[in-house]
Amino acid sequence: MAFTEVAYKALQDIVGEENVSNEPAICQAYSRVQWLPSGVMQRENCGLNMRPACVVMPGSTEEVQNIVKIANRYQFPFIPRGSGFTFQAFPTAAGTIVIDPKRMDRIIELNEKDMYAVIEPYVSFVGLQSEAMKYGLYTPTPLAGSQVSCLANYAWHGAYGNSWITGVGAQNLLGFELVLPDGEVVKSGSMTCPGAGNFWNDGPGPDLRGFLRGGMFGHAGGIGVVTKISCKLWQFAGPEVFPTEGNANMKFSSGFGEDVWRWYMIKFPYKYPEEEELELKKSAELFYEMGKAEIGEVATHLAQQFLYTYSSVTKQDLFDNIKNDVFPSGFVVVALQAKTSFKQMEYEEKVLKEIVKKVGGIFVEEDEPAYQVWIKRAANEWIRFGNAQRLARPSDNFSIGSSNVDSIDSIVYEIIESNEVGRDLLKKEGLGKDFVQPLSIHGGWISPQEYGYWCLHTTDVFPEQEPEQCNQAIEIIGKVAKSQLERKSAAAVIHLLGPAYDIFGPMLGNVHLIMKDLKKEFDPNNLANPGYATRPDVLSQEELQKMMGH
Amino acid sequence: MALEKIEYDASHCQRCSTCKWSHLWEVKSQRFVRNCPSVWYGKFDAYAAQGKNDIVTGLLRGELSWEESKDALLEIIYRCPVCAACDISCKRVMDLDIIGVLDALREEACEKGYGPLPAHKEFIQSIMNYDNVWKQPRTRRSNWAKKLGIKDLSKSGEKADVLYYVGCTYAYKPGMETVPQNTTDILKAAGVDFGILGAKEICCGGIADNVGDKKSFEEIAQKNLTMFAETGAKTIVTNCPGCFMTFSEKYACMQKIDTKDLPYEVKHSTQYIDELIRQGKITFKNPVNMQVTWHDPCHLGRRGEPYKHWEGKRVQFGLTDPPREMNRGVNGIYDAPRNVLQAIPGLKLVEMERIKEYSWCCGSGGGAKSAYPDFAIATAKERVEEAEATGAGTIATACPWCEANLNDGIDATGSSMQVEDILDLVKKAMG
Amino acid sequence: MALECIVKKEFDVREGEHMANELSTMQDVVSTLEAIVDNTRIFTDPEYLDRYAQDTSLCAAGRPDAVVKVLSTEEVQQIVKLAHEHHIPVTPRSSGVGFYGAGIPEQGGIVIDMSAMKKIRRIDKRNRWVMVEAGVTYGEVQAELAKEGMRVLNPLLAHSEKSVITSTLEREPKLTPKHHLDETILTMEMVLPTGNIFHTGSMAISQGQPEKVPDETHSDLCNFHGPGVDWFRLVPGSLGTFGIVTVMNVKTTLIPTQSKMVFLGFDKLEDCVEPFYHIERTLIGDDCFLLNNRYLASILAADAADIERISSVLPAYTIVLNLTAGEWYPEDKMAYQEEALHDIARTFLVTPLETLPNVPDVAAKISALLYQPWDNGTYWKFRARGASQEVFFLTQLQRSPEFLKVITEVAAQCNYPLSDMGLYIQPKQHGRTFHMEAGFPYDPEDSAQRQRIETVYQKVSEALVTQGAFFYRIYGLWADMVYSRTGTYHKTLKRIKRSLDPHSILNPGKLGF
Fold it and tell me: Which domain does A216 fall in, by range?
């Protein structure tokens, strides 16, 4: 069966005529992923199939539940989404519908004492953060930008500017309410127990967050539609309203107050990029020491591509800064927050200075361009804004080149190796020769998590939005991933989605078979985002080859 | 044709959705976190700049055709006040001409013969027939000025330093005549040498351009440009932000020149009065003991920025050749009206959460009020609620369209809020 | 239930399904097990089996048909494979002690006893973790880690036979309520119900020996997410029903260079709430918890006879806070923490004490106990009366007085002597939630007391669940009590269970499976 008029009528009955549309013009706005090379190619390959058969906007969990039941009755695929920034929220086959959560945008509860909020899918980070700040709390600062759905980001793949404290999406998710692919509603954590409240995550019994998410990714809506979550809020000593000055786009600056929040930039005395390896390894030392001392609110190594893009006011400004070598290398960025007291921050500053000295680092001085551009302009903005798609500013398109999760040491190793593979491809095969340099295949974002107990990284490439360049980017990403597997990095463990399960599963204890059994149990008809979640059946070699070919 | 000009901008949208939220830097609450009336009201992504980018890309690539979805397309395109909040939010991250995309869609609709909408055509026809948008006889245009003894610069030989351009709505709309009358009193009290065009004043034509009818717009604009040249006035003062923006930005754009290269300088009355206050030419006698919040009219604020003409192309990495200086909400008229209000003794200015370049639109612009009154009123209601949250009893503004629509919003909410034109407040204070 | 019956019953239920029929007698099973492990480690003697039939909880006994003491993951794997093929119940045990009935083989079958798997496989000081086998106890691991200046976080005075893996998987609250140390599991080697060995997190990159993964690959076993689902969350709390964890690496912390115990005494629980919240909100101290006088006395008393006296001189409720500092400028760190504590104390009109009145050396005593298992004879919770039944749950601290009222009212209605009752409140994640535990000591030899405690246990639990206490760990009668109220949660768990363990061989009967 496919999506039919009868099904459409049923959806109208559920949400009201005004909240569902199959108008081509309306649906067209849900048919494009343009910001990743893979998205560009997907669009090239799928064309009109990426336009959903209809878009439906439920206003409640009950409506979501009924939509999912109708999908099961008439056997059409559905894709749940948040704000729609991710690449997996778009149809890949005709007859798919998209569930847009815009009508579900309430902050249901914000609990100051117990530091959590309960939100619906269309609450953005910025909305939640602005409310939390009124109570001396804040949210993680999403690299995807604070315009994205907080719920989707936590259920999917959030990474944050202040991960040093907060960890990633998985660590910030408390309880959830989920409409399973067959339309049953399940809640988790304390919210499942009548009268218990929404404050906690694990149980009763096994923690179903383990089922909702997997690896660094979730299941791309493959196990249903999350309709509500409770999530953590974190101590914030800054002002109740995010402080701003000047024009929002051009002359911005902001201070939380030196008495509550201080930024530092740290560099190492090495020639870049020739001695990138030493710079990264020293950064790792710094993080290990800071982790042992349990100091800091933010601790991360920002590669050039992050520094240039995130601090850019305009595209021209970005290229001017590159030309002027404002950020001659990657830098470690640290923030201290007076969460206990001013004395605690002063103590941490004293320790930080000792540690930096011990590892041979140098504090960037206030009169250096890097300090002026990053700390004076961009750093606090990073707390509010995450900077979102500024990462695409260099070429109006970008892609993660490699990404891993493991120890800080392993991450540094992976950055060095991944860049090496990338540079080799450039040298020998000319792959990426037209990408923005030196931002592509250089440097890496080291993001130690939770006081450095673990760490993630990305390297990025900046092709233009041309199929040829995008294909090159995809080839580079594929070859880097292959090299990671060959040298037994931990990379493959984290990024499993769709056919990747079939490809990598056999190398990972046949995890694909486990996941397919779960998929069969919960979504035997493969209706929940079939383009991205793993399928219930095991793909044949022929099918895999065919998919890889695309 | 119109769409091709902005193909790069539309197709390089990252779909990050920054365009749908109030400027992230400036968000102060979940309640007022939205910026785009169009997608706030219409909800589907198509109503946001992101969706319109997708639609343009779809139309250009043949994935979408006008024929299969004409009515929906027209609603998507025109149920939007073209307030540019999306454009300003987007500029935070990217360098795409989002306003260009919205304008191009309207132009395309007109080129196809589907636009503008009947309600818009009425306005344009009225301009063609009567030189004003309100289907009023030309002779009544200067009724407000009777017995005020203002120079009529349309008469040969009359000259003045300043051409005070009144605009259709202030000239004709019953109850709004106090604004030009007060303006006259203020300018006179300050000793300004000014004149008006009397019954010869014609509509600025901004509405035609707003809805994509470039042909009609150009015809009207040419008439005005000729008249301005004939008066020899170097300074034009307007009350209506629509006229202000049309003369300063749209006429420059039409002539492919920068605003600064126009043969005249356009000033909004708040700018002009702010200068007069600072020069000591206006003094206030009476305290105005009110708590007031200022509503930034879009055409005065982020859309009131001077036009910087650019002709060129996107080159490697999307850079522009020659380099293009885009409007980013920096040079709108935000401070002048605030300065004026703050100069009034007794008056306390309290700000709403969404102001200046990230202000929430009243919902009236871009032909939205005439074609989609329910949408316009809903948008105004939202603004009224935001104003109420400040604790102020009065919304001050300086736009006849905003004023009328906000009043409709007040009626719809049953709010006790008052809307006052800033010039009426100035006059009260001057006594 | 005899193994023969189970095999037969399963066979009947699944009529037509192919099943090897050679294991239709107990002897067949034992013979097959003998091919897997040395027969000296297979036990079928009824008296021996009785040791596994019961623990210290009130849960009904269930005698296994065989106990196998395993020494390796491979042995576990082969036994589970066998069990999977023949639908034989398997109950994993890694601790020599059980408080909650989790390891009682309700449906008989095979108990896999992993308590002899004692290897500490690897210590990674740089990345701050230790890899242990299932049978390693806190005492064993702390002794080894201390040599490196490290320790694992442990629950309050763990039983000396409690294994690190059991405690971690049971999610026993730890004394240090830090955000980043709330979930300590990094990677795991586990045997799935199908008998396959599965590695979680970044250990999945290799199928080799867990401790060799860092040498053979470029992983330091620090990524705990995935693959597939997040096993580090799904498996804990499942009481061995989803898989048997044989090896795990967990986060460790560094042993402080300085520490100072501070006590805040209160007459009423209500008065503890605000200062306790503030201590957590300002992130001071490492170990922090609250005990009532009875529980604190049970720890401090030199012998059981002294508990009552000590209890009578202690404040009704005491917050115990251990301020610590590490390598860098420890004096400065201690100073700012003390100052912050005194600010809180001033605000709430309490006095932080370095000792407690009438109890000599209390700080030193508690300090010495915190990172060791209980080694002073009878387990501290049992000292007063010989046994104790706990009721515990999670709550927001602000609701703790409300729940205490429920507990005391119901217990009093059951004629339980309230002066005997212990209370323990443990913050987690700097006060996002608090583990609240009431302990009801009783004399297990006294059938009237035992009967009364069963009533107390049931009625207090029931009243708490009704009031909205969140029972996050599910044992015994709590399964029905809680899951009957939680909509489809249990059904969803059952569906996951069915998918992972289609023959329901792992610890059947637990969690209502």
Answer: 107-235
CB contact under 8 A, B15 and A85: yes
Nearest Cα residue in chain A from B11: A34
Contact B55/A28, CB-based, under 8 Å? yes
User: Residue C61 and residue C474: Cα distance in Å, rounded?
Assistant: 18
Predicted local distance difference test score (pLDDT) of residue B380: 98
The rounded distance, in Å, linking the Cα atoms of A495 and C226 is 9
Which of the pair, A217 or C476, is modelled with greater confidence? Answer: C476
Cα distance between residue B16 and residue A86, in whole Å: 9
Task: Decide if pLDDT at C17 tops 60.
Answer: no
Q: Does the pTM exceed 0.90?
A: yes
Instruction: Determine contact: B378 vs chain A, CB below 8 A.
Output: no
Q: What does the block give as tokens for A89? A: 């929220």
Which among C208, C203, C153, C205 is positioned nearest to C177, based on CA atoms?
C153
Output the six-digit token pair for B147: 């017995």
Residue A485 has pLDDT above 90, yes or no: no
CA contacts within 13 A on the Cβ side of A372: 5
**Where are the alpha helices (H) located in A139-275, listed in sequence order?**
150-155, 163-166, 169-172, 209-212
DSSP state, A315? Answer: H
> Measured between CA atoms, how close is A24 to chain B, in angstroms?
6
Residues A95 and A182 in one domain: no
CA distance C488 to chain A (A): 5
Structure tokens at A207: 């923690």
Q: Which of B160, B235, B234 is nearest to B198 (CA)?
A: B160
* Cα–Cα dist C161/C116, whole Å: 11
Question: Between chains, do A196 and C470 touch, taking CB under 8 Å as contact?
Answer: yes
Query: In terms of CA atoms, which chain A residue is nearest residue C191?
Result: A509
- The runs of H, that is alpha helices, within C292-413 are 293-300, 307-313, 330-348, 362-369, 400-413
B49, two tokens = 């700049």
Q: What is the pLDDT of residues B157-216, one digit of tens each?
A: 899 999 999 999 999 999 999 999 999 999 999 999 999 999 999 999 999 999 999 999
Which residue of chain A has the CA closest to C474? A205
Q: Are residues A367 and A485 in the same domain?
A: yes
Radius of gyration of chain C (CA): 23
Q: Which of A157, A454, A489 to mutate to test the interface with C (most CBs of C within 10 A)?
A: A454
Following DSSP, what letter does each residue of C407-423 receive, concatenated? Answer: HHHHHHHTT--GGG-EE
Residues B284-301, buried b or exposed e (16+ Cβ, 10 A)? beeebebebbbbbbbbbb
Residues from chain A contacting residue C219 (CB–CB below 8 Å) = 406-407, 410, 488-490
Residue B51 to residue A21, Cβ atoms within 8 A = no
Q: Is the same domain home to A125 and A221? A: yes
Same domain, B130 and B60: no
Hey, of B23, B30, B375, which one would you mutate to test binding to chain A, going by the most A CBs within 10 A of its CB? B30
C92 is written with which tokens? 């994993």
Q: Which residue has the higher pLDDT, A497 or A82?
A: A82
- Residues whose CB falls within 8 Å of the CB of residue C401, separated by 6 or more in sequence, listed in order: C268, C269, C270, C273
Contact B12 A397 (CB under 8 A): yes
Nearest CA in chain A to C276: A113
The total of structural domains in chain A comes to 4
Q: Tell me the one-letter amino acid at C354.
A: E
A211/C282 Cβ within 8 A: no
Closest CB from A248, A388, A465 relative to B16? A388
DSSP string, B339-366: HHHHHSTT-EE---SS-GGGPPP-S-TT
Q: Are residues A123 and A39 in the same domain?
A: no
Residues B167 and B92 in one domain: no
pLDDT of residue C11: 38
Q: Quick one: what percent of chain C has pLDDT higher than 90?
A: 89
Distance in angstroms (rounded) separating the CA atoms of residues B268 and B276: 13
The residue type found at B35 is N
